[in-house]
């Protein structure tokens, strides 16, 4: 398969942004614009989603992880910072498990270590049945509303539904099965790089026990909770979201300079 389509801007340390279920690279445009003055920012489209909707989806989280690794191989990139949102957070955990030498820092946003997502707003089986009966466009409108504190009136909802509707049905269906079968908990103690865990405090997809497991099990984890936001906190509170990442990525500089 040819290299995944992606967005890229900037120069400097490599920051890779991996989207989640029914997402796409375009959802990261604000982050690309914000960080490109100091980072080489790359946002891939996962197979079957966004600008890669013409490609078959992946049947496993590991296959999605390998697809992103393949892109980075094609671009001859190592020593990267990985950020993953939702299903993308599972993908970057898997990427880091298989090739830890490639990842200098990890950012796990609105995600968890267990793909079944206990206490999710609805079971994955329900999402699968509704996807088959309603189609992709209706599914992203319905599910996307749960990603915002104010539902369909949330800031960024229209953009989310536009991007999500581009996904092909096979990829959308396969991804639900891939998540249901994935369990990243055994790998957590081995992900030793500095990790930032970001969570919106009203997230209905990944509840607190998932976040707490990441925070308490990862060897070098730091937790940031964004108040009055949900699963799409990067769209609801973009300035706070970006400030938290900026702070985390500048920690080495602060430490070496002796500043607080």
Automatic annotation (TrEMBL):
Keywords: Hydrolase. Residues 13-119 form the AB hydrolase-1 domain. InterPro entries: AB_hydrolase_1 (IPR000073), AB_hydrolase_fold (IPR029058), AB_hydrolase_sf (IPR050266). The keyword Hydrolase applies. Gene3D superfamilies: alpha/beta hydrolase. One of its GO terms (molecular function) is hydrolase activity. This is Alpha/beta hydrolase. It comes from Palleronia caenipelagi. The lineage of its organism: Bacteria, Pseudomonadati, Pseudomonadota, Alphaproteobacteria, Rhodobacterales.
């Amino acid at each position: 398969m040819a290299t995944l389509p992606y967005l890229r801007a900037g120069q400097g340390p490599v920051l890779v942004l991996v989207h989640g279920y029914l997402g796409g690279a375009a959802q990261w445009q604000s982050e690309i614009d914000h960080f490109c003055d100091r980072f080489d920012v790359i946002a891939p489209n996962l197979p079957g989603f966004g600008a890669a909707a013409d490609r078959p989806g992946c049947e496993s989280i590991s296959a999605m992880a390998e697809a992103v690794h393949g892109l980075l191989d094609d671009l001859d990139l190592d020593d990267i910072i990985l950020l993953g949102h939702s299903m993308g957070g599972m993908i970057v955990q898997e990427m880091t498990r298989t090739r830890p030498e490639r990842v200098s820092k990890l950012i796990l946003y609105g995600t968890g270590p267990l793909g079944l997502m206990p206490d999710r707003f609805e079971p994955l089986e329900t999402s699968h049945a509704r996807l088959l009966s309603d189609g992709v466009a209706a599914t992203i409108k319905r599910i996307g509303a749960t990603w915002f504190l104010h539902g369909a009136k949330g800031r960024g909802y229209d953009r989310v539904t536009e991007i999500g509707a581009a996904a092909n049905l096979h990829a959308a269906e396969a991804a639900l099965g891939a998540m249901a079968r994935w369990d990243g908990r055994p790998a957590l103690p081995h992900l030793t790089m500095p990790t930032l865990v970001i969570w919106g405090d009203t997230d209905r997809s990944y509840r607190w026990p998932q976040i707490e497991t990441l925070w308490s099990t990862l060897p070098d984890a730091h937790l940031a909770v964004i108040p009055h936001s949900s699963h799409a906190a990067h769209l609801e509170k973009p300035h706070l979201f970006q400030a938290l990442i900026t702070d985390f990525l500048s920690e080495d500089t602060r430490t070496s300079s002796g500043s607080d």
